[in-house]
Amino acid sequence: MNRAEIKALYRELYSEVEEILFKIDTMGINFEDNTDEYDPEVDTILPRLKYAKSEEDVHEIVYEEYVRWFEESVGNKNHERYKKAARA
């Protein structure tokens, strides 16, 4: 599924998750004007959320997708930034 299809399917939820990731800025790439910087992660996180039964599940999904996109630079799974993203 491409980004346009994912945005059409998830609508407001896409924007909400995009905003959460941009605001929390887990990877330090928020330069105020690049609000789509976390779109690739949103594209892969959203379809997986339907399988989450708890905040811990969301935390695992978010972390796994960050590992997928950023590899080793994501740091410790238990870092507060990933927990904060999962809670939000």
User: How many E strands?
Assistant: 0
Biggest beta sheet summary: none
- Measure the end-to-end span: 25 Å
**What is the CA-atom radius of gyration, in angstroms?**
12 Å
Helix/strand-derived category reads mainly alpha
Q: Which percent range fits the helix content?
A: 55-70%
Helical region count?
5
Low-confidence segments: none
Shape: globular
Order of helices and strands: HHHHH
Overall domain count: 1
Task: Please give a structural write-up.
This protein is mostly helical. It has one domain. It is built from five helices and no strands. It has helices at residues 3-10, 12-24, 39-49, 55-70, 80-87. The radius of gyration is 12 Å and the shape is globular. The termini are far apart.
Secondary structure topology:
Blueprint: H1 3-10, H2 12-24, H3 39-49, H4 55-70, H5 80-87
Helix pairs in contact: 1-3, 2-3, 3-4, 4-5
Structural descriptors:
globular, 0% strand, mainly alpha
Tell me briefly what this model is.
With 88 residues, the protein is mainly alpha-helical.
